[in-house]
Amino acid sequence: MTDTAKILLEVKDLKMHFPVNKSLFSKKQFVKAVDGVSFEIREGETLGLVGESGCGKSSLGRTVVKMYEPTSGEILFDGKDVTSLRGAELKQFRKDAQLIFQDPYASLDPRMTVGEIIKEPMVIHGLYASDAEREQRVVELLQIVGLKPDHIRRYPHEFSGGQRQRISIARTLALEPKFIVCDEPISALDVSIQAQIINLLKKIQQETGIAYLFVAHDLSVVKHISNRIAVMYLGHIVEIGSSNDIYCSPKHPYSIALLSAVPIPDSVEGKRKVRIPLHGEVPSPLNPPEGCPFCTRCPHADDRCRKERPQLHEVAGRQVACFKVTE
Q1: CA 174 centroid distance within chain
Q2: E strands within the chain?
């Protein structure tokens, strides 16, 4: 992936608010899971998305692939506005933009064989002229993800967690998509298996040019697979830049605190590293702060931060949403 690669996905001021009704007579409230997010992903690029649990990462990923109908904003895919697509056009978009779920067991139908699971998207989208051709393609996909052809007749419960995630990846690749949202695809796996899945995803990207939005908690994993990293907090992207810049020299106070918690294998370096604890309560997405979403926990917050919301602006080769960061 190069900086001259074509922009595949462009998200503009995207919002995903979920209605919450506490009672019949109370005022309708909304959980602001995604609240004005903008970013772009180029062909063959991996954008890592990190942040605490509940910050809106998964909601953003699912909204981008139209699993959720966005409250407002724009989603441009391959130069076309897909925000309001319906019918056949939406079906075509979903062929090009796929999703790998977090839990490989819950996302696979236990009543279907591996062959049926991988073949189903091909049937729905009318790919290949005959069932024999589809079955041959299933065998090819199993081999691509490191499984054996004779696994085609087995059921999901007969496989390990890592193997089930490989089956999920094979199903996702069945439609030859241009873009995949990887929604924490390794969080449910053993550490020894995580590296295998990450290396598999990188290999597939090198061979096919697929773009990824990679959602994860583990910042060291995100650095390994991502070209750029976006840091998310309470429905907002607070910093976005190259993987090395974000990992080695974060600018936003939240990014700095988040990176300080990443464990270092080197015992000497690990002892030298200073952990930056965050104090204060995490605001509710039902009632976020009026100003900066991080102002209730930021040690540098002042009156301006509490009243005015900072926008992403260019700083040292990346974008940061903070009034205090100017260089």
Answers
A1: 20
A2: 7-20, 29-42, 46-50, 72-77, 80-81, 97-100, 179-183, 211-215, 228-233, 236-242, 313-315, 318-320
What is 7-22 written as a DSSP string?
A: EEEEEEEEEEEEEE-S
Structure letter (DSSP) for residue 102: S
At 247, is the secondary structure helix, strand, or coil?
helix
- What is the per-residue pLDDT across 43-81, written as a single tens digit (0 to 9) for each? 999 999 999 888 999 999 999 999 999 999 999 999 999
Residues constituting the chain: 327
Check if the beta carbon of residue 122 is closer than 8 Å to that of residue 106: no
Percent of the chain with pLDDT over 70: 94
pLDDT in tens, 224-281: 899 999 999 999 999 999 999 999 899 999 999 988 877 666 555 555 667 777 787 7
pTM: 0.91
Nearest one of 67, 75, 174, 61 to 125, comparing CA atoms: 174
Distance of alpha carbon 165 from the chain centroid = 16
